[in-house]
Design goal:
Blueprint lengths: L1 H21 L4 E5 L19 H6 L9 E4 L6 E5 L21 E5 L5 H4 L7 E4 L13 E2 L2 H11 L4 H26 L4 H12 L11 E4 L21 E6 L2 E2 L2 E2 L2 E6 L4 H18 L7 H18 L7 H6 L3 H4 L47 E4 L2 E3 L2 H8 L9 H7 L4 E3 L2 E6 L2 E4 H7 L2
Parallel strand pairs: 1-5, 3-4, 5-6
Antiparallel strand pairs: 1-2, 2-3, 7-8, 8-11, 9-10, 12-15, 13-14, 15-16
Helix pairs in contact: 1-5, 5-6, 5-13, 7-8
Bound molecules: glycine (GLY) and manganese (II) ion (2 copies).
The site of one manganese (II) ion has 4 residues, from loops.
Length: 437
């Protein structure tokens, strides 16, 4: 990790210093952020350091801290380590990243002010504003041109970042297997969720995103977080969308299982093949939006072959009936954020490249390039409000409603992998992680 991180930060500093020069910035102050208090309460929400801060250091839960980057020399890290007998204070800075910083430990939040650069004419501040930064009235705060360029560049992952995402896949794959065993043993959503956390040795707030642990029809709720404690009378299916984090980088993995053999299990196998076919189309130079459009054709083929709607594949795509069964985007960039920034940029200036009107939920419209990391997550669901619209619509008679009714109790299917694109081909971090178990 040492060498990978060393290369990562060397390259990051070079690129960010170039952006600083382009924007007449001599000092960049990156704030980790301030805990957010529950309204009219004396408790804070779980704290997460800003992703600007986490781009530099794997300090995922360190508030009131700053990184200062000048045009040369080591960056400075102002590290907040209070004397606190109510909470566990942050440990002493340690690990592979420390040698790359001049580290100043502060015990009081106010002490940061003396360690930040004084001249605020040519200073830019990234991240949340705070009391400490109140005197920096001349500084540029989150200047758009700088931020857009940083967001754009974030899509290209360093080998260090890819290694972190790979390890996050390995951790999550192991926990997914534990969750599958719990499902097979007839456990509740809540029990499966807790087993997932236990297997990772983490608490809820340390997940990259709220686990989706859905039995039966709950799989049709795209962001299902209810996690019920009661086991359904008849267990049919299990959709799990859950990740893990390593050094602030995330994985985002979905698998779907049938309890018994049958047509739903066959649809899962078919969707697994769709996922792999979509990944097979990912290559340097391809448009992610084209992969998404192509996924709709594959979903149309399944709608046709499983006889959910009596229409040709072409007609299913043209009428957008495919969106009833597959209403979300094919995937997104992933890294320091589960849905990484810059997915709808045309270039480094942040010019918009919006999704086509037909696919408003597509998060990435970028041209696929080397060292990008994407999720690929085609889905096939039986979603009541979307089906209800079709029941009242002009194509209602083409739908095989009895057949659909028999699938509704199974909810839906999503198969989600995380992939790295390189000139030499695609590396599937998720499948590799499962295979290695
Ligand atoms: N787990 C959120 C997503 O798949 O995008
Ligand atoms: Mn997911
Ligand atoms: Mn995802």
């Amino acid at each position: 990790m040492n060498q990978l991180y060393s290369n990562h930060i060397g390259d990051l500093l070079k690129r960010h210093r170039q952006l600083m020069q382009n924007n007449d910035i001599e000092n960049l102050i990156i704030s980790s952020g301030t805990p957010i208090r529950v309204y009219q309460d004396d408790m804070d929400y779980p704290f997460k350091s800003s992703f600007f801060f986490r781009t530099y250091v794997p300090l995922t839960e360190l508030p009131h801290s700053f990184i200062v980057i000048g045009l040369s020399g080591k960056p400075k890290l102002v590290y907040f380590q209070p004397v606190d007998f109510w909470h566990t204070p942050p440990a002493d800075p340690s690990g592979y990243w420390t040698e790359h910083f001049e580290i100043e430990v502060i015990k009081e939040t106010k002490a940061a002010a003396e360690l930040l650069p004084l001249d605020n004419q040519a200073v830019a501040i990234l991240g949340e504003d705070s009391e400490i930064l109140a005197d920096y009235e001349k500084a540029q705060k989150n200047p758009e041109s700088l931020i857009n360029a940083i967001y754009w560049q974030r899509a290209y992952k360093s080998d260090y970042e890819i290694e972190c995402i790979k390890q996050a896949n390995q951790l999550a794959a192991r926990a997914h297997n534990v969750a599958e065993k719990m499902f097979r043993a007839g456990k509740s959503e809540q029990q499966i969720h807790l087993a997932y956390l236990e297997s990772l040795g983490i608490l809820e707030h340390q997940l990259p995103y709220g686990n989706i642990i859905a039995l039966n029809a709950n799989g049709a709720i795209l962001h299902y977080h209810d996690c019920q404690s009661k086991v359904p009378d008849k267990v049919r299916s299990f959709l799990i969308d859950a990740g893990a984090s390593v050094a602030g980088y995330h994985s985002d993995i979905t698998r779907t299982y049938a309890y018994e053999a049958g047509e739903f299990a066959e649809l899962i196998s078919a969707m697994d093949a769709v996922n792999l076919e979509c990944i097979g189309e990912a290559r340097v130079g391809a448009e992610y939006g084209d992969l998404h459009a192509s996924a709709h054709r594959k979903i149309a083929r399944l709608i046709h072959d499983f006889n959910f709607v009596d229409m040709s594949v072409d007609a299913l795509v043209e009428t957008d009936i495919t969106s009833t069964f597959f209403p979300h985007g094919l995937g997104h960039l992933i890294g320091l954020q589960v849905h990484d920034v810059g997915g709808q940029f045309a270039d480094e200036t942040g010019a918009a490249k919006p999704p086509p009107a037909a696919y408003p939920f597509l998060r990435s419209t970028r041209t696929i390039e080397s060292n990008m990391v994407y999720t690929v997550e085609p889905g096939f669901y039986f979603i009541d409000p979307l089906l209800a619209k079709q029941k009242d619509g002009e194509y209602a008679n083409a739908f095989n409603w009895d057949k659909i009714e028999s699938f509704r109790p199974y909810g839906g299917i999503r198969i989600e992998d995380n992939i790295v694109i390189r000139e030499s081909g695609v590396e599937n971090l998720t499948r590799d992680a499962f295979s290695a178990l």
